[in-house]
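I hope you will forgive my troubling you with a question about protein structure. Could you please explain, in whatever detail you think fit, how the structure tokens follow from the sequence? Thank you for your consideration; the sequence and its tokens are set out here.
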Amino acid sequence: MSRLPRIVSKRPGRERGFTLVEVLVALTIAAIALAAASRAGAGLAVGAAEARARTYAHWSADNRLASIRLSGEFPPTGTRRYDCPQGAIALRCVENVFNTPNADFRRVELSVEHPEDGHRLVRLIGFAVRQR
């Protein structure tokens, strides 16, 4: 019958293993790596939420410009503010209408922002044409 080789310790009477310092260093390295990974994951979540809000804001502004085009509306000049929610996100639209050198055209600038802090998410510019 074959015998397995015995591991002989350099110090008689003591078993080999990790020291407390080695274990603490390994735990510290693992904790730093996990903290960095969780911070990166949180950053990705915030970025995804911001992208989602910008997408909804773009849809809201695009809907208003499409309704102006399709209805043939010739909006009056000036500034108008109104709520324009999309999905579960509350948004505020700011519509600025300006005259152009051609009296049959008006420039429509739509900005969509967060209602709480006023942070602008998107800005679209379109034109309204007077129907004759």
Observations:
- The radius of gyration is 32 Å.
- The chain has one helix and four strands.
